[in-house]
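Box S1 | Example of a co-folding query
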Amino acid sequence: MTLPTLLSSTADVRTFRAASRDQRIAFVPTMGALHNGHASLMKLARERVGADGIVIVSIFVNPLQFGAGEDLDRYPRTLEADLKVCEREGVDAVFAPAVDDVYPGGEPQVRITPGPLADILEGAVREGHFGGVLTVVAKLFGLVQPDVAIFGEKDYQQLALIRRMAQDLNMPIDIVGAPTEREPDGLALSSRNVYLSPTDRQVAASLSRALRAGQAAAAGGAEAAGKAASAVLAEVGIAPDYLVVTAKDLSQPVPGEGRMLIAARVGTTRLIDNVSLTIGG
Ligand code: PAF
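Box S1 (continued) | Returned holo structure for pantoate
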């Protein structure tokens, strides 16, 4: 195993990128606190560009996507451990910049406007969140200039918005979604799981149980799926921020392939999860 090259500044990325002009680049943007879910994104990145290509991971806790009262200050920052994960996965370079290198002079005046898809679900409860996500992703894309970028399906709405941004703004980047990695009891891997107390950790598994119940009931239609999932949450006293069945593109559900998405607070931790499902007519 070789240590990935550590790129600590935007200038480092430009130099690294200029030297790798002829190679295919796969990019995995993260906020660090890396777990097996991120490792699976890195594996997919390597598969996409092969042994001769280059895999770059960014680690940057982006202040622009956190609202007032959210967990920006306590978000786990674990660079040493993260570098080990990247080394194990054969990542070539890790871009881990400081905030004032990414945003010299403070918050940017020019930002990405995410459009109506950002007003629903997560966007309805986290004002400005997706504008912050898309702005930093657009900046990272500009710096890294990848051929392919990998994002987890766990943040399904984020993935949909990044696809939409790449399409609407003609970014020549293949956006790839990677399946959610789960604990044995079904809990989706997330950097925020470290906030869960042992009791909350047990309750948290009911989110994925609810989604599985929804999947199993979906042949009876979107409403039946929603009811089955809600019943599981009610048993453990969880009132979700939202629990919805949608079409694959997050529009109104129609018979066929769809998505069920959930967000709920367990203790002090807000968790999100989603699955695909086949909606009966
Ligand atoms: O999913 C994340 O970790 C972040 O939202 C991302 C895409 C790295 C942007 O900060």
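The mean pLDDT is 97. Residues 29-31, 62, 65, 133, 136-137, 155, 158 surround pantoate (CB under 6 Å).
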